[in-house]
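Lab notebook, bench 4. The sequencing result for the construct came back, and we need a structural model before the next group meeting so we can plan mutations. Quick request posted to the team channel:

Model the 3D structure of this chain.
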Amino acid sequence: METFAFAPAYELPSWPFTPPPELNGTTVVRHPIVIVGAGPSGLTLACDLAQRGVSAVLLDEDDTVGVRGASSRGICYAQKSLEIFERLGIFERIAAKGITWSFGRTFSGAQEVYNFNLQANSVSKQPPFINLQQFYLEWFLVERILELGVTDVRWKSRLTRVEPLADGMRLHIETPAGSYMLEADTLIDATGANSPIRTQLGIDAHSSRSTDRWCISDVRFKKPLPTERWTWVDAPFNEGRGVWQHLMADGVWRIDYQMPEDCDTATISRPEVAGARLREQLGPDVEFEFVWIGPYGYRDHLLERFRHGHVFFIGDAAHVVSPFGARGGNSGIQDAANLGWKLALVAQGQAGDALLDSYDAERQPAARQNLQVTSRSARFLAPRSSAEHTLRRAVVALAARHPFARALVNTGRMSVANDYPAAPQLPEGGRTVQNLPLRWADGRETTLMQLLGEGTQCLGLWVSPTRAQAEAAREATASLPLRLLAIGGDSGLPTLQADDTLTAHLGIDGAGSFALVRPDAYRAAVLANATPHAIASALHTALALTLALTP
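Done. Here's the predicted structure in token form:
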């Protein structure tokens, strides 16, 4: 029997367990915010809050990143997530370590059906995607959190029980030094798909009945493959099932093979079986070494509500979707960015408590949309009837010859920042604003994320206001978290150079037009002819505050 080489295992960092003060006391200490789970969504939220100067307790039952014995896990980080990481101060590390890509090819058998370039419609400083093993992302986030020095990070702390209180939650924690209790005004569940908090509170996740199964092979090849995303709809080397091929950091390739639902997970992960798949895919003489091989299975689920009183669910604790299009982990990161600024402003008394309800009003529909999109991809890649098989064959055949049919070849609609529906704090709905490169009037460079990285405030971008308008607007919003900026003109406000790309992207046009951009880089309002009162009114609406102004 052929033996296969394995690369040395990654040496992941670990952090020390520090006995918390509650172990030595007889009273139960209350904390404003407690986050349980140090995966991508929990770490992003802790880092976001710390960047805003808001303290939180972060609990995790391990003392390292990733999952012991596993390897890459989540790998594909989308532009919106990368923009968030730019604001949090870790994007440069991600870009330096990861693999930037925008080009992909889709195959049916040996035939290329079509290709795409995601860079075409981007105006952001960040690329469409970067591939990076999940443990690196978590590693960078932990180090940034520790650098900021605001978060109480507690390793080797396992949540064993959660109790609802009238004004918060009580948590029972088990550690190597003993057990203790603490209380939280607000509890964030970032514990993942098998959330013990959700289970103990009796909240139905509405899981799907079937399990999609895959086998992941993390591999180094002696001869590099093209740095592109390659997808097979019906790979002949995988018994007519789907295959994904991506390059990650350290010259490691991630190849995902779709498996039958009833497969034996131990068998499909054996080196000789995985090696045979690789040789069938790339030829009998391909030279490689395995970094990791393992099965992967998931069941879709989606909570009806992401807020239950004092508990907020983020990431996989709230929603799980199929991996097609990288909408899972990215959605959890964007959950955290949506919630972080709202918790900060409410804690600082600068927004109404109803603003926290908008987390569910915005992110639950986003997750529902992602579930719908990825479920359609799953049906295309794993047809459940002869009619669906016939349809797929027809679509693939047409796509090779006719551009109109290529949009129907559904191997995963790539992750995008979801638009938000109209709601009390977003009367016109909301859409993301990309991290545009900008210039101040004196020529100095900046970006939208740099502007949003300074404190927790909205941006008011106003085309050529008069000096009188600018002064009146400053007075009307003096006590509110708003940074007013002019686009062109001579208003006395900090002024950005007029730029057609900027105004078109914001959806504003002409002198006096105004866009309100939230701290999470979502456009909250557009005013065609802004007045100081209208600006203050839009800001009060976006922050769930009562307007106490006269017209």
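The longest strand covers residues 178-189.
Will bring this to the meeting.
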